[in-house]
Amino acid sequence: MPDLREILNALDEADKQLWLENRARIRAAYLTAHQQVLGVTNWHHDDDNFMDLIDIKLAILFDAAGRIAATTDVTD
Predict the structure, then answer these.
(1) All structural domains of the chain with their residue ranges
(2) Cα dist from 48 to 11, 12, 54, 63, whole Å
(3) Distance separating alpha carbons of residues 15 and 76, to the nearest angstrom
(4) Which pLDDT tens digit goes with each residue over 46-73?
């Protein structure tokens, strides 16, 4: 998968804004749930992996919709 910066650069301005808004909402929801259930002091590297997965899933969504104008494939 390309670097996140490459994906964002391959989006037009409207789609880039849509990406960033949705990314922020999903991350905020997870952080809120984590804080309420475990507390921030119990953050684990798997939580970082999940945050990365959010970016991957958004890339797959935008790629499936044909909204990424990239020269390399987003997914295999």
Answers:
(1) 4-64
(2) 24, 27, 10, 23
(3) 22
(4) 999 999 999 999 999 999 999 987 655 6
Whether the CB-CB separation of 55 and 4 falls below 8 Å is answered with yes
Residue 70 CA: distances (Å) to CA of 10, 42, 46: 6, 38, 29
Sign of CA dihedral 10, 64, 54, 73: negative
Q: Which of 34, 72, 37 is nearest to 54 (CA)?
A: 34
Residue 7, classified by CB atoms within 10 Å of its CB into exposed (0-12), middle (13-18) or buried (19+), is buried
